[in-house]
Amino acid sequence: MSAGNSFNLSSEAAKGYETQKVPAIFAPIAKATLEQTELPENAAVIDIACGTGIVSRLLVEYLSGKGRIVGTDLNPAMLEIAKELMPETHHGVEWFECDVSNLPFEDATFDAAFCQQGLQFFPEKPEALAEIHRVIAPGGRLMLTCWRSVSPVFQVVSNSLKNRVSETAAIQAVRPYAFRDGEIIAALLTGAGFSNVEVSKIVVDRHFSPSRAAIRAEILSSPYEGELRAKGDKVIDAVVEDVDAELERYRVGDGLIVPQDTHLFKATA
Ligand SMILES: C[S@@+](CC[C@H](N)C(=O)[O-])C[C@H]1O[C@@H](n2cnc3c(N)ncnc32)[C@H](O)[C@@H]1O
User: Fold this and answer.
1) Which end of the chain is more exposed for a tag (fewer CB within 10 A), N or C?
2) Model confidence over 72-103: pLDDT tens digits?
3) Considering only CA atoms, which residue is closest to atom 27 of ligand 1?
4) Tens digits of per-residue pLDDT, 202-213?
5) How much distance in Å is there from the Cα of 249 to the middle of ligand 1?
């Protein structure tokens, strides 16, 4: 079984992920997903590729502190933040560092699984989905989101990185959006054993602070952080300036509002 994570963040970038990206985009998507979810009381639920744990934290509220919630991720820096924000002593949440393709649970352990913006990073997608299917009880539910289009913000970041940093960094900036064909994802889910596969669209208005400090924090909480920092402050400032200028067209009043859409797949194990 091959371990792999193309969304691997340093401790510093993981902190930036939690403070920048989670409130702006990942928490609103998780809330929209949970609004469309029905879980039995005391459900046992797994949050796969949980990152800094936003879905698990919202599940604690959703289940009113009952049931069992397990968050799993491959990146220790992300899990460190998840543990700080929701220690295992609270509400029966458990955190596991593991690859999606090798989940340390018996067959049919969970009533439901969530996977928010993780699938696109899994190197072996059919194997990963089969493993997720294995740990859900027959008839249990999967709620999975994966971007539906390229973020206009990160397209702008990618264009600037291509000119000022490297082709590799430019590709990394839009990589989370590269795997987004809904029909292919639905076919993968069916191939992994899921039935009743339904797909819908969630659109979230991403609110950005137009300050250069916020843009800087945003671009440094990403997998290309190391390469960008290695180029030095002058290059970082130039990328920030490019992004600032390009994002002006999304200005609404004092802020920036950039729409981002995602697929929500619901399926039965
Ligand atoms: C964009 S983040 C999403 C995190 C979280 N679900 C959220 O909504 O904030 C993608 C996550 O996938 C995790 N990941 C990537 N490859 C993985 C793998 N093979 N097994 C487990 N987790 C993986 C990364 O470590 C990262 O935390």
Assistant:
1) N
2) 999 999 999 999 998 777 667 999 999 999 99
3) 51
4) 999 988 777 888
5) 31
